Amino acid sequence: MAKKLTENVSSLYIEASNNLRPKTARRRIVAYVESYDDVSFWSHLLSEYNTDKYYFQVMLPSKTSLAKGKKVAMMNELGQGLGQHMIACVDSDYDYLIQGMTATSKRIIHSPYVLHTYAYAIENYQCYAESLHGVCVQSTLNDRAMIDFAAFFGLYSRIIYPLFVWNIWFYRKHILSVFSMQDFCRVVRLDPISVQHPEDALEQLRVRVEKKIHWLSRRYPAAIDELERMKDEFAGLGVSPENTYMYIQGHHLKEQVVLKLLTPVCVRLRRERELEIRNLACHAQQYRNELTAYHHSLQSVESVLRKNTNYEDAPTYKMIQRDVERLLKLL
After folding, report:
1. pLDDT of the residue at 330
2. Which of these, 100, 124, 62, lies nearest to 108 by C-alpha position?
3. What's the confidence (pLDDT) of residue 324?
4. CA distance 158 to 241
5. Interacting residues of 172 by C-beta distance below 8 A, sequence separation 6+
6. CA of residue 197 relative to chain centroid, distance
7. Contact, 113 vs 138, CB < 8 A?
8. N or C: which end of the chain has fewer CB within 10 A?
9. For 295-306, what is each residue's pLDDT tens digit?
10. 3-class DSSP state of 179
11. How far apart are CA 234 and CA 274, in angstroms?
């Protein structure tokens, strides 16, 4: 009886051990990405589609060098090898919006084996407005909603939208010396924000944007009719005056817009919690102990933002999911 019990236990142990190993019988689909920062985003998205028949493995594009980037992911070692077992996953940048006016843009929007973010980059997803309250909560452990982030970035987007259309027009015309992306980013940055009056920063932004639009309109009056047609085209691509922030340069959005707002908000929320601890403490030692425990539990807002994955409700994210589902039908 004891021998039989031991054999059963051993059998169960071996079975459990085997289950810990990767399912090597499944077909592997290699997904090449641009850089280290992209691995987590695409792994999070593609892992939802793993089955007992196939699985996605997210990798950097080169096995022979440290070369990274969109061109490497799409062209270098892959060559013409993209297909059922090898795909590329890249940031859209402006390539989605210029709609096939360069070779890279054509490949991104036409190849079923190239998945792209639709939004400018993965940083735009990390900055998804509806998720930013949660970012503040994780960073401060204070759940008070101080600002309606969706409303703020809806208004921010409406202010910058006309100038954004101008910027895409210049990229489509390859006239980058007049109004480059860097020029656009300098205009649409946010000045230091008062938590009590965030509308002041938006008003300063509006003045800068209107001044630049006036200058461009005087210099390129013939472009105005084409800009209006582009707005209709953008609507069909999912770009609207309310969500423009998702399509501007991701690094700029994070550093010069979102963190300009989140940083003072989180400072204020932490001070509120610290004041609460001081008011509730029965004596000085309890105050010091509780304050130390609170500080040890905090995370920087930059760190939380980098790890933010609460963007799955974003319309652009759902567009990527539809592309993955179309891809799987080709396997």
Report:
1. 85
2. 100
3. 96
4. 5
5. 98, 101
6. 27
7. no
8. N
9. 999 999 999 999
10. coil
11. 46
